[in-house]
Specification:
Blueprint: E1 8-12, H1 18-28, H2 39-48, E2 54-58, E3 61-71, H3 82-85, E4 100-108, H4 117-131, E5 136-142, H5 155-163, H6 170-177, E6 181-186, E7 200-206, E8 223-233, H7 239-255, E9 260-262, H8 280-288, H9 291-304, E10 308-310, E11 314-318, E12 321-329, E13 335-339, H10 345-351, E14 362-364, E15 367-371, H11 380-388, E16 393-397, H12 403-420, E17 423-427, E18 429-432, E19 441-442, E20 447-449, E21 461-464, E22 471-478, H13 479-488
Parallel strand pairs: 4-5, 8-9, 8-18, 9-10, 15-16, 16-17
Antiparallel strand pairs: 1-2, 2-3, 3-4, 5-7, 6-7, 8-22, 10-12, 11-12, 12-13, 14-15, 17-20, 18-19, 20-21
Length: 509
């Protein structure tokens, strides 16, 4: 058969194909007498949704067909029947403004099976789903071998055995291999389907590119530009001079149309020089007095330069307790606070610093982001909880004095990108502060990490700054690539977790 094939073509179904379609259905569904569409049905489908009706032709002869409609899926119960979903075969359930592409029929003539033509039909449906911005594909899949086992196992057990390759079911095996996942058993789905005992499996495929429709005059960006500031520690006369340097960097990264600017942990430490004669614990509390004004100035910069700014971190006093905290200053004028949860032994001992209490993601115009300050990146549970909330980008402002300290942050940050299927951006400070106790030297190389799969750099590094050099680092990250990875990656770290053996959750306050 393969040697005689001269041409394979995917075409839209027309009413002129009907007689050939009818004969093909009778042959394909030989175990189900009279299981073919009437001409009036095909006319109705073509009139309502011509893009959804396609055929595969080999040497100009019909070899297979796929029929579909668009439905408002929320109007149907998950335990619907074929009769209900098709509106008693009227297809009045089709709505151009619906949100799910529903498969009505798909078949390949017996003599052409084994050529993977069905895959072409399903690929077309997926492309159509993406083109029309529908949230997914659904259909009831027959289980034609179930009648052989109906006396001994339930449909649910049958599906489990098919998935484990203990039972061969030509239809269900094919659906699963084409990335459709079984979600429910549908009882009494298709009247007359004796081979399946009238059971079907609700199979679904999610469109990772789907964007929920909105009436707001805004769009959520898919390609996000990150601007990382590798900050040089130097002495400043006062707060005004430090903020001039801050604005210089915000201006620089915004000139490249960056969506985010990330500053390092304790970037404002040079202001402690004026209080270097005081004990370290007192000097850092004096530094914390600048924090409210710095946050206000950052918020103004975020608005005027149209960029989301992560302020790194600063000491902050709340209820007379000292914290290491930072702010996400959004370009819409709002601000969000984040805090370091795990303070280092040095921070606790020298400064009397406390660990924070809140861990959460933040909604932005570029997706959900999370922030972990330096040492927090070395605790994998934190980023996994953020990933469970839908985090796309993890920002890690850090401050490390030695190369081994930096290596801990760097390698843990890269691990967080792989295990949580997200982007991770780290930014640190470089240089020396000879007149600030406990802040003498800094070592840093700011970087952007990615997961490791075919759509990403093989080494998982999107961009990297020059070590120990003051500079900015600009990098673009594609959020849609994360969606593809979640569904179709070579490995799927989030989906493949053995939640039947373990769970991770935040404690209630």
């Amino acid at each position: 058969m393969i040697e005689s094939i001269e041409n394979i073509e995917l075409q839209f179904l027309t009413i002129n194909d009907y007689q050939e379609l009818k004969e093909a259905m009778i042959e394909a569904y030989s175990s189900m007498p009279n299981a073919y569409w009437k001409e009036s049905h095909i006319e109705s489908l073509i009139a309502k949704f011509p893009e959804g009706q396609v055929v595969i032709k080999i040497n100009d002869q019909l070899a297979g067909c796929a029929l579909s409609i668009i439905v408002d899926y929320d109007k149907f119960d998950d335990h619907h029947t074929y009769n209900e979903i098709t509106g008693n075969y009227t297809f009045d359930t089709h709505h151009q403004d619906g949100d799910v592409l529903y498969g009505i029929d798909v078949f390949i003539k017996p003599e052409y099976r084994g050529l993977r033509l069905g895959r072409r039909l399903y690929d077309y449906r997926k492309e159509l789903c993406e083109k029309l911005n529908l949230r997914g594909i659904a259909f009831g899949g027959r289980i034609p071998n179930y009648h052989k086992y109906a006396d001994t196992i339930s449909p649910l057990e049958y599906i489990a055995k098919v998935k484990r390759k203990e039972i061969h079911d030509p239809v269900l095996n094919f659906q699963i291999s084409n990335d459709f996942h079984p979600s429910k058993v549908l009882k009494g789905y298709l009247e007359g389907d004796e081979a399946s005992n009238e059971y079907a499996v609700l199979l679904q495929w999610n469109n990772v590119y789907y964007t929920k429709k909105t009436t707001k005059a805004t769009t959520k960006k898919k390609v996000v530009r990150l601007g990382l500031i590798q900050w040089q520690m130097r002495l400043y006369k006062n707060l005004e001079e430090l903020m001039q340097q801050v604005e210089y960097f915000v201006d620089a990264v915004s000139a490249y149309r960056s969506d985010f600017a990330l500053f390092p942990e304790f970037f404002n430490a040079p202001l402690m020089a004026d209080n270097n004669h005081l004990p370290e614990s007192e000097a850092i509390r004096r530094l914390a007095q600048h924090t409210p004004e710095i946050v206000q100035r950052f918020s103004e910069l975020a608005i005027s330069y149209n960029i989301n700014i992560l302020t790194g971190s600063m000491p902050e006093v709340k209820d007379d307790l000292l914290y290491n905290a930072g702010y996400l200053c959004k370009r819409d004028g709002s601000t969000e606070r984040y805090e370091k949860l795990h303070v280092t032994p040095d921070e606790a001992k020298i400064w009397g610093m406390q660990g924070g209490h809140e861990l959460r993601t933040y909604d932005t115009d570029c997706g959900k982001v999370g922030v972990l300050i330096c040492y927090d990146s070395e605790f994998p549970e934190l980023s996994r909880l953020l990933a469970d909330e839908g985090m796309d980008i993890l920002f890690i402002p850090f401050l490390t004095d030695t190369q081994n300290g930096y290596s801990r942050v760097r390698h843990c940050a890269q691990a967080r990108a792989i295990e949580n299927e997200c982007y991770v951006a780290i930014a640190g400070s470089v240089g020396n502060l000879p007149k600030v106790n406990n802040m003498d030297i800094q070592f840093a190389q700011s970087m952007v990490f990615t997961p490791c799969d075919f759509s990403f750099p093989a080494n998982g590094i999107k961009a990297e700054a020059t070590t120990n050099t003051e500079m900015i680092l600009i990098a673009d990250v594609d959020i849609d690539l994360l969606r593809e990875l979640n569904e179709f990656g070579s490995v799927r770290n989030l989906r493949d977790r053995r939640t039947d053996l373990f769970e991770l959750k935040k404690k209630k306050k």
